[in-house]
Specification:
Layout lengths: L1 H20 L3 H11 L4 H25 L5 H23 L3 H26 L12 H18 L3 H12 L4 H27 L6 H21 L5 H21 L10 H51 L8
Length: about 325
């Protein structure tokens, strides 16, 4: 029972992050399942089965709050479903010894990307409302879907930054559209795993625990997307993913550093980098907010002066 409660809390936290940041449900959940020794293909299958429910509720919640662009959902989601089905088939055919380091490497790369992206650059907003092209969305969906299935997560870490970097869709609609289209990706990946693995290694009680936690968080995350600072959240989540998957890799037979001083040094150095990244993000966020407040105050002052000039009486010439 404690393990199921923990899984439900992980599902809640992962969906809270995913729904407000547009990424990290699969990466966070898969990282935990790998850390406790779950078969990589079974871990990815468990996460994607739970995501069928969480992404459905999340999509509906984002739609209710006006965070969804349905053209983007279809243009990126359908190729994403194809890519995720192919990725599930590939991962299911790999031996566990080969799949575990591969999956951790993919997750580590995604974690580094999230950490660097949100710590150093934040969100781009200078090209909002320009049209997104099919020739950009279709390949993006195909690649992101494949990475998502083989890495146990990746739809958001690949898709969300790419759409944000384009600057052509406001951040809340990027996050809402990516979360909504992920339903198609999760459904296709789950079918791929079930056709190749059957139910082997999949604990449906674990699926239910992740699902319950995720469904509980989805409406709250859709509301929070307008209020949480994505820069700080991205740095925090990226650091957790980097630390956990680095630990998995250094302890693998391929690296062979388990229990050595080098393991502690590597993880300690990464922890310091992570703390510094969060501190940097907090400082940058406060600086951005200060600039926004100054701009708002300047605008208010200018408008007040304009109103005073307009309201001033006009002197009439005397005869």
């Amino acid at each position: 029972m404690p393990a199921l409660i923990l899984l439900a809390l992980v599902g809640f936290a992962a969906q809270l992050v995913d729904g407000s940041l547009g990424m990290a449900y699969g990466v966070t959940s898969s990282t935990l399942l790998l850390a406790i020794g779950t078969n990589p293909a079974a871990a990815s299958a468990t996460v994607h089965l739970s995501e069928i429910g969480t992404t459905l509720v999340s999509g509906i919640s984002h739609w209710k709050f006006g965070n969804v662009d349905w053209k983007v959902v279809l243009r990126v989601g359908v190729p994403g479903a194809i890519g995720s089905f192919l990725g599930a088939t590939v991962l299911s055919r790999l031996a566990t010894d080969a799949a575990a380091p591969l999956m951790s490497t993919v997750l580590l790369a995604l974690g580094v990307y999230i950490l660097v992206r949100f710590t150093l650059f934040g969100l781009r907003k200078d090209r909002l409302h320009l049209p997104l092209r099919k020739r950009f969305l279709a390949p993006l969906g195909l690649v992101a879907g494949f990475v998502d299935a083989t890495g146990g997560g990746g739809w958001g870490p690949v898709g969300t930054p790419a759409l944000l970097a384009s600057g052509r869709l406001e951040p809340r609609k990027v996050i809402g559209s990516i979360d909504t289209s992920e339903f198609l990706v999760a459904l296709a990946a789950s079918l791929g795993f079930l056709l190749t693995l059957g139910s082997q290694g999949i604990d449906f009680v674990w699926v239910a625990a992740l699902l319950i936690g995720g469904i509980a968080a989805a409406p709250l995350a859709a509301w929070l997307v307008r209020h949480l600072p994505p820069r700080i959240l991205g740095s925090a989540v990226g650091g957790i993913i980097v630390l956990t998957n680095t630990r998995t890799l250094v302890r693998s037979d391929a690296v062979g550093l388990k229990g050595t001083p080098a393991e502690g040094l590597i993880l300690g150095a990464l922890a310091l980098v992570w703390i510094a990244a969060i501190a940097w993000s907090v400082r940058a966020y406060r600086a951005e907010r200060a600039v926004e407040r100054e701009a708002a105050q300047a605008l208010t002052t200018d408008l007040a002066e304009l109103d005073d000039e307009t309201a001033a009486p006009v002197a009439t010439p005397t005869a």
